[in-house]
Amino acid sequence: MKTFKAFISENDAEKPKVHFIGFRDGDRYQRAIRIFGKPDYIHPKWDERAKHGGEYANGDIRVFATGSEEDPPSKHSWDDSQRF
């Protein structure tokens, strides 16, 4: 059975957002949705944007498909805002 690691930062006044990080397979993604609900943000990998990007705020929940927030972020970031 696969397990998920989720990290919850200090509480904030607004409802926490859910960030999914590194999900590549549909089954694992669907199981995470059953546990945490649909994500507000999807990050293809753990990179500087996922770690320090403007979307993340205190109180948000990060759900990792593999690894944890203690892993070093990838040196290569992907800016999905260019797609919109």
Q: Nutshell version of this structure?
A:
The chain has helices at 26-36, 48-52, and strands spanning 5-8, 18-21, 41-43, 61-64. The protein has 84 residues and is α/β, with parallel strands linked by helices. Strand 2 (18-21), helix 1 (26-36) and strand 3 form a beta-alpha-beta unit.
What can you see in these coordinates?
The protein is of the alpha/beta class. It is 19% helix and 18% strand. It has a four-stranded mixed β-sheet with strand order 1-4-2-3, covered by helices on one side. It is globular and about 30 Å long. The N and C termini lie far apart (37 Å). The relative contact order is 0.30.
Main features:
single chain, alpha/beta, 2 helices, 4 strands
**Beta-strand fraction estimate:** 15-25%
Outline: globular
Helix content: 10-25%
Main beta-sheet strand count, sense and barrel state: 4 strands, mixed
In order across it, which strands form the biggest sheet?
1-4-2-3
Number of DSSP E strands? 4
Number of domains: 1
Provide the structure class. Answer: alpha/beta
> Low-confidence segments, ≥5 residues, pLDDT <50?
none
Radius of gyration: 12 Å
N-end to C-end Cα span:
37 Å
List the helices and strands and how they pair.
Layout: E1 5-8, E2 18-21, H1 26-36, E3 41-43, H2 48-52, E4 61-64
